[in-house]
């Protein structure tokens, strides 16, 4: 592993050598000829097929680094082994990350036999919410990536060398990783602010809205978990992918979770963002939940919160797009723990393809959205720093991957937790809520508890 903070390519002894070959995974035939079933449906992949390939912590393949993952409904990418690592910081963290990746790519030797989004060179990244946070950001270039998309799968190996090596072989690279062991009993303690204290934080947020300092502010809290046995991140990822199949299950540098919110996907000039804001807890009773979905869809408080979030995304995308499409009304996204108001905003990038901004540049322009910061952005960010009482670190920051052409997918690191490199028993869980004038501190605390459920369940044993 090399840790570089600037001018990476100049310091690389040899170019990055990248090789992608087709793979035969369950439900993912290697040859496209065998792929399309007659009824037009794609073969079902188990949501954890890719995750099952991740090497165990402590194994040689894991290389001492946290697993890398970006998976939804069985498609996506997993990666392991840390070939290159770039640490970035401050307001320029996204630009620094992009520069580092471009410098590596400028000297790359690539043989890509599959040619799909996510094949060829791929880097994963995770970035702090706040430019002042010591958590900064990281870009990791793995040694091995396995991807799956719509019935096709591939294997990419990345090395730093002088020439293309032999055709990579998955069996040799993966072996048979042992299933992750349970983390055992989990005990919880307060995070930076106690639950009671957080009600006061929310009350201060509501007062600031009523005073006209902001229209909306998103306030978050953390809780500290201690696992009996060291947490094997693969354990949590498998449970998240099974339980939250409509979310993007991610893991980069110890930041893991299952986010329902896609900050931006950029693919061949088409940009998509899934905006969420406006939440109601589920009861566990389907009929009652349907009634709650109808209440949510008509709640003026939630529609107002949602409108701020959608407008902030559409506004941030407009300078890059020749056209954008903003749905008139949100749909209700049903997750196992909560219901959200959701809107998929799309856009077509303007200008020549070679001049398109990368997906990370788009993520940088979109971050922080009103869904995780508030409106107006600067006033909300200042208010968060003043009253929230914790460093969000990489929670609510962009997390995802990008490829050689800059296309990629970046989620907002929600329903998430940060593991500790120093103490494998320690996990910090996060959740936050949008606050408007009509918010109620006790209801927001309950909503934050509902949003902690995915990660609590993921690191639990039953
Ligand atoms: C901030 C979080 O969620 C955000 C806030 C929401 C809300 O307040 O309704 C909904 C989805 C997210 O945009 C979180 O999950 O931590």
Automatic annotation (TrEMBL):
The keyword Ion transport belongs to this UniProt entry's keyword annotation: no
Catalyzed reaction equations: chorismate = isochorismate
GO BP, sorted A to Z: salicylic acid biosynthetic process
Chorismate-utilising enzyme C-terminal domain sequence ranges: 196-451
GO molecular function per UniProt: isochorismate synthase activity
Keywords per UniProt: Isomerase
Coiled-coil boundaries: none
Highest taxon of the lineage: Bacteria
Pfam families: Chorismate_bind
Enzyme nomenclature, EC number: 5.4.4.2
Enzyme class per UniProt: isomerase
InterPro entries in the cross-refs: ADC_synthase, Chorismate_C, IsoChor_synthase
Family: Belongs to the isochorismate synthase family.
Entry protein name: isochorismate synthase
């Amino acid at each position: 592993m090399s840790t570089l903070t600037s001018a990476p390519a100049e310091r690389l002894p040899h170019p990055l050598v990248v090789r992608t070959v087709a793979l035969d995974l369950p439900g993912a035939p290697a040859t496209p000829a065998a792929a399309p079933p007659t009824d037009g449906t794609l073969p079902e992949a188990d949501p954890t097929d890719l995750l099952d390939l991740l090497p165990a912590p402590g194994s040689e393949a894991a290389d001492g680094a946290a697993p890398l993952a970006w998976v939804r409904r069985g498609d996506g990418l997993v990666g392991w082994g840390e070939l290159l690592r770039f640490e970035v910081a401050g307001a320029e963290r996204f630009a620094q990350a992009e520069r580092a990746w471009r410098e590596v790519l400028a000297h790359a030797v690539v043989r890509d036999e599959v040619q799909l989004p996510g094949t060829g060179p791929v880097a994963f990244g995770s970035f702090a919410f706040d430019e002042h946070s010591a958590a900064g950001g990281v870009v990791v270039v793995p040694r091995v990536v396995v991807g799956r998309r719509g019935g096709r799968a591939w294997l990419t190996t990345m090395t730093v060398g002088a020439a293309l090596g032999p055709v990579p072989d998955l069996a040799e690279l993966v072996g048979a990783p042992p299933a992750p062991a349970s983390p055992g009993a989990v005990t919880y303690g307060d995070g930076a602010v106690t639950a009671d204290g957080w009600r006061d934080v929310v009350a201060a947020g509501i007062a600031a809205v009523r005073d006209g300092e902001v229209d909306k502010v998103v306030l978050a809290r953390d809780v500290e978990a201690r696992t009996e046995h060291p947490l094997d991140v693969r354990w949590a990822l498998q449970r998240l992918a099974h339980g939250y199949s409509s979310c993007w299950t991610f893991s980069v540098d110890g930041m893991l979770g299952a986010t329902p919110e896609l900050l931006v996907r950029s693919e061949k000039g088409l940009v998509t963002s899934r905006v969420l804001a406006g939440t109601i807890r589920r009861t566990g009773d389907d009929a009652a939940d349907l009634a709650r979905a109808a209440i949510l869809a008509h709640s003026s408080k939630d529609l107002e919160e949602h409108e701020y979030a959608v407008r902030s995304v559409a506004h941030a995308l407009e300078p890059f797009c020749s056209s954008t499409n903003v749905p008139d009304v949100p749909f209700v996204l049903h997750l196992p723990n909560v219901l959200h108001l959701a809107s998929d905003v799309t856009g077509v990038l303007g200008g020549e393809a070679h001049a398109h901004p990368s997906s990370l540049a788009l993520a940088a322009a979109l971050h922080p959205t009103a869904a995780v910061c508030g409106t107006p952005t600067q006033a909300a960010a200042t208010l968060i720093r003043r009253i929230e009482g914790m460093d969000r670190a990489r929670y609510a920051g962009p997390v995802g991957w990008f490829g050689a052409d800059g296309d990629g997918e970046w989620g907002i690191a929600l329903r998430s937790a940060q593991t500790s490199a120093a103490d494998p028993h320690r996990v910090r869980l996060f959740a936050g809520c949008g606050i408007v004038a009509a918010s109620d501190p006790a209801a927001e605390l309950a909503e934050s508890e509902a949003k902690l459920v995915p990660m609590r369940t993921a690191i639990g044993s039953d």
